[in-house]
Write a structure and sequence with these properties.
By secondary structure, the chain is of the alpha+beta class. It is 38% helix and 34% strand. It has a four-stranded antiparallel beta sheet with strand order 2-3-1-4. The longest helix is centred in the N-terminal third of the chain and has 17 residues. The protein is globular and about 35 Å long.
Length: 95
C-alpha cells in the first residue's frame, strides 16, 4: 500500500529553509516520492494554522520512513529545525 508524507509548516527563516527544501527534494526523489502538494492555496478548517502544506506520495510506509531516516534528509532537517515550526506524519493509503 502507498503512503502519504504530510507536513504542515510555518517557515521562520526563508534562507535556511530553502537549503532544507533543496536537500529534501533530493532525498524524496531518491526514495521514489512524488509531490502531490507543495505550498499552494489552502483553506484552514480546524487546528493550528500553518501557511505551508506539503503532501508527498511514496510507494509504501516503509519507503517514506526510510526517506525520513536517510542521511540526506537528516542533513536537510539540520536546516529546517531552526528555520521552521512543523508537524509531520506518514499515513498509509489504499492503492
Amino acid at each position: 500500500m502507498s503512503a502519504l508524507w504530510i507536513a504542515h509548516v510555518t517557515v521562520t527563516d526563508e534562507e535556511a529553509y530553502s537549503k532544507y527544501a533543496s536537500l529534501a527534494t533530493q532525498a524524496i526523489a531518491k526514495h521514489n516520492g512524488q509531490f502531490l502538494a507543495r505550498g499552494g492555496r489552502y483553506i484552514q478548517l480546524e487546528g493550528k494554522e500553518r501557511p505551508r502544506h506539503v503532501v508527498v506520495k511514496f510507494p509504501s510506509v516503509e519507503q517514506a520512513h526510510r526517506c525520513y531516516q536517510s542521511d540526506i534528509y537528516q542533513q536537510a532537517l539540520s536546516y529546517a529545525r531552526n528555520a521552521s515550526e512543523r508537524e509531520m506524519v506518514i499515513v498509509q493509503i489504499p492503492d
